[in-house]
Amino acid sequence: MKRDVISTDQAPGAIGPYSQAIKCECRGFVFCSGQIPIDPVTGEIIQGGVSEQTRQALENLKAVLKEAGLGLDNVVKTTVFLDSMDDFLSMNEIYEQYFTSDPPARAAFEVACLPKNAKVEIEAVACY
């Protein structure tokens, strides 16, 4: 997989741990469903705020990618759904710990409600 970060000063720069765009030459894609912060052992939403829930959602995403033979470095696009944009900065602090170099393109939205009353859900597209 060849993966290049696209960045131009002719559009607003990234204001967080994401890239304006990712160009990839790959053999195929893996489309990961949204992951909410469910503990895979208990089947319940983990306790805590958006930081803890973001960490669990990303751990769940990592597990799905691992099963596909991939890792977070294969992710080219994520979408983050939050139950409140007031939690954006806290989510971002955890998110950037998982995508430390050449982060994927990303969108983030506030939504009215998430499954099981989660505070965050993260979906991803990866290429290989």
Provide a short characterization of the protein structure.
With 128 residues, the chain is of the alpha+beta class.
Instruction: Give the number of domains.
Output: 1
CATH-defined architecture: 2-Layer Sandwich
Output the radius of gyration: 14 Å
Instruction: Give me the strand/helix succession.
Output: EEEHEHEE
How far apart, in Å, are the first and last alpha carbons?
5 Å
CATH class value: Alpha Beta
The CATH topology assignment is: 60s Ribosomal Protein L30, Chain: A
| Helix coverage percent | 10-25%
Shape: globular
Bin the strand percentage. 25-35%
Characterization of this structure:
The chain has 2 helices and 6 strands; from the N terminus they run E-E-E-H-E-H-E-E. The chain is globular and about 40 Å long. The chain is α+β, with helices and mostly antiparallel strands and 128 residues long. A 4-stranded mixed sheet has the order 3-6-4-5. Strands 1-2 form a two-stranded antiparallel ribbon. Strand 4 (75-82), helix 2 (88-98) and strand 5 (105-110) form a beta-alpha-beta unit.
